[in-house]
């Protein structure tokens, strides 16, 4: 074998740093649910890194996968007791593509059970903690808390998570890393265990935008195994779209009036500073309105549990994984003992909520209305963006905005003590108010860190369907601000 280039040696050295961080911090932070043996990771990197003479690409890079990506060499638990020993007979397309690109999967990372939650505290394997706060037990965010923590703690370079209502962006914001949710259907969901399939998106977490781009380049392709994968025809339409060049063109940045909500002072200040900075580069900021945004949270919390209740019906103790010792409950029900013992409280709550909203009595008043609200929100976004929506052949608004910018969350990472004090369940749902609309409308969105360390605030950039490249470019601009140097 030819002797490794300096770039390949740097990859091997980098992998050792990741392994060291895993060894030192994983037990406390509870980042990984399943970890490959260190020697196996080391050997894989040593074999692959020398093939990457440039240091670019994913060859020889250590990555992690959220534990809802099916793998054949490790269990896929969804952080649930019901799947605690589940071995999938097949692998997710996304995981396979990354492995084929030479990435080395170190293991499967912690998450909220079946991706339901915002603080990675609803997990069978113990709450994942935020590595930025070694002295307090702070939220890593959820549901992809392990993904963001694994990157923030330099246990790996890239992590795949899923984002149904903000689950890649919120942990990204709390842990001070980039969390990117592409347009719906860009990355295959084949082999990714569903929470709410009309909203679920594979997302990418990394410490810098170029790594996100490299990963997205590998994953951004049609997959016939995923019926919701964006077709080659639509992909071509996207490729033909006029794209702004952020280095030369003046961007029109919108701030949604409805996103001006009760924010913590540091979050508000970061938002203002980020906008000031972009203005100082010559971009233009204006206030726009998406009047139905205020209905996005109720719509999301009707649609997502409804889909979840149907998706999770398959975990009945007969076909998959865990089965309770008691065969039937006192009414003769076969499934109840298993489902009661195997699902955590939050998952049970959402199954009940979703089943209720799909019931004959509630369907028209709840589920159908939520679907209508979803469509109205989409129409309102289409009215304010300059770019047409290629999925619906809308004309685009000539005086419209290119991107929307607002914070990812109302506060920085709360401590678990604070989270426990808040016993009102719906209160904990309110935090998703700034993220769910992108999922309802299928839009690309990224949370970019603003500031350093514990003071980092997540600034969110999103745009019209298909404008994934544009928001990545804007995230790069934000990253170049003096405060992030
Ligand atoms: N926090 C949201 C929820 O609990 C989002 C979850 C997600 O994106 N997977 O549903």
Automatic annotation (TrEMBL):
Task: Write out the GO MF terms.
Answer: ATP binding; glutaminyl-tRNA synthase (glutamine-hydrolyzing) activity
Give the matching Pfam families.
Answer: Amidase
Q: Which PROSITE patterns match?
A: AMIDASES
Could you tell me the EC number(s) of this protein? 6.3.5.7
Report the SUPFAM superfamilies cross-referenced here.
Amidase signature (AS) enzymes
**Keywords (A to Z) from UniProt:** ATP-binding, Ligase, Mitochondrion, Nucleotide-binding, Protein biosynthesis
**InterPro entries named in the record:** Amidase, Amidase_CS, Amidase_dom, AS_sf, GatA
Cite the Gene3D superfamilies for this sequence: Amidase signature (AS) domain (3.90.1300.10)
A GO biological process held by the record: mitochondrial translation
For this record, the Gene Ontology CC terms, alphabetical, are: glutamyl-tRNA(Gln) amidotransferase complex; mitochondrion
Task: Tell me the enzyme class.
Answer: ligase
Its predominant location is: mitochondrion
Protein's cellular compartments: Mitochondrion
- Catalytic center at which residues? 66 (charge relay system), 143 (charge relay system), 167 (acyl-ester intermediate)
Could you tell me what reaction this enzyme catalyses? L-glutamyl-tRNA(Gln) + L-glutamine + ATP + H2O = L-glutaminyl-tRNA(Gln) + L-glutamate + ADP + phosphate + H(+)
Q: What does this protein do?
A: Allows the formation of correctly charged Gln-tRNA(Gln) through the transamidation of misacylated Glu-tRNA(Gln) in the mitochondria. The reaction takes place in the presence of glutamine and ATP through an activated gamma-phospho-Glu-tRNA(Gln).
- Give the family, as the similarity comment puts it: Belongs to the amidase family. GatA subfamily.
Name assigned to this protein: Glutamyl-tRNA(Gln) amidotransferase subunit A, mitochondrial
Origin species, per record, is Trichomonascus ciferrii
Organism lineage string: Eukaryota, Fungi, Dikarya, Ascomycota, Saccharomycotina
Q: Which gene encodes it?
A: HER2
């Amino acid at each position: 074998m030819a002797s490794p280039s300096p770039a390949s040696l740097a990859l091997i050295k980098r992998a050792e740093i990741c392994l060291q961080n895993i060894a030192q911090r994983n037990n406390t932070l509870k980042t990984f649910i399943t970890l490959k043996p260190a020697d196996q990771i080391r050997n894989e990197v040593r074999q692959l890194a020398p093939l990457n003479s440039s240091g670019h690409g994913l060859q020889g890079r250590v990555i992690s996968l959220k534990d809802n990506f099916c793998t054949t060499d490790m269990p896929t638990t969804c952080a649930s007791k019901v799947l605690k020993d589940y071995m999938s007979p097949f692998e997710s397309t996304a995981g396979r593509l990354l492995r084929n690109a030479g990435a080395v999967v170190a293991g499967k990372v912690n998450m909220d059970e079946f991706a339901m939650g915002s603080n990675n505290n609803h997990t069978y394997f113990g709450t994942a903690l935020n590595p930025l706060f070694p002295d307090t037990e702070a939220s890593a965010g959820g549901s992809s808390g392990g993904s963001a923590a694994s990157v923030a703690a330099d246990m790996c370079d890239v992590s795949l998570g899923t984002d149904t209502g903000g689950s890649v962006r919120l942990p990204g914001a709390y842990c001070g890393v980039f969390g990117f949710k592409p347009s719906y259907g860009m990355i295959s969901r084949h082999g990714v265990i569903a929470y709410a399939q009309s909203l679920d998106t594979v997302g990418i977490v990394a410490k810098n935008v170029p790594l996100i781009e490299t990963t997205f380049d590998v994953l951004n392709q049609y997959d016939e195994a995923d019926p919701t994968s964006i077709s080659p025809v639509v992909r071509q339409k996207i490729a033909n779209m006029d794209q702004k060049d952020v280095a030369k063109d003046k961007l029109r940045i919108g701030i949604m009036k409805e996103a001006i909500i009760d924010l913590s002072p540091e979050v508000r200040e970061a938002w203002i500073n980020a906008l000031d900075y972009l203005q100082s580069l010559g971009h233009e900021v204006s206030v726009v309105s998406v009047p139905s945004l205020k209905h996005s949270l109720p719509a999301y919390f009707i649609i997502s549990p409804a889909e979840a209740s149907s998706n999770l019906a398959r975990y009945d103790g007969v076909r998959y994984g865990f089965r309770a010792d008691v065969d039937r409950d006192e009414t003769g029900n076969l499934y109840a003992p298993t489902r009661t013992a195997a699902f955590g409280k939050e998952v049970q709550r959402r199954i009940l909520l979703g089943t209720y909203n799909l019931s004959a009595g509630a369907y028209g008043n709840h589920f159908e209305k939520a679907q209508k609200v979803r469509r109205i929100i989409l129409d309102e976004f289409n009215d304010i963006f300059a770019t047409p929506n290629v999925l619906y052949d809308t004309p685009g608004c000539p005086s419209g905005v290119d991107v929307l910018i607002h914070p990812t969350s109302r506060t920085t990472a709360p401590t678990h003590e604070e989270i426990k004090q808040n016993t009102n369940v719906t209160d904990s749902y309110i935090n998703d108010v700034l993220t769910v609309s992108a999922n309802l409308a299928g839009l690309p969105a990224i949370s970019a860190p603003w500031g350093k360390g514990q003071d980092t605030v997540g600034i969110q950039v999103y745009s019209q369907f298909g404008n994934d490249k544009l928001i990545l470019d804007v995230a790069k601009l934000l990253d170049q601000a003096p405060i992030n140097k």
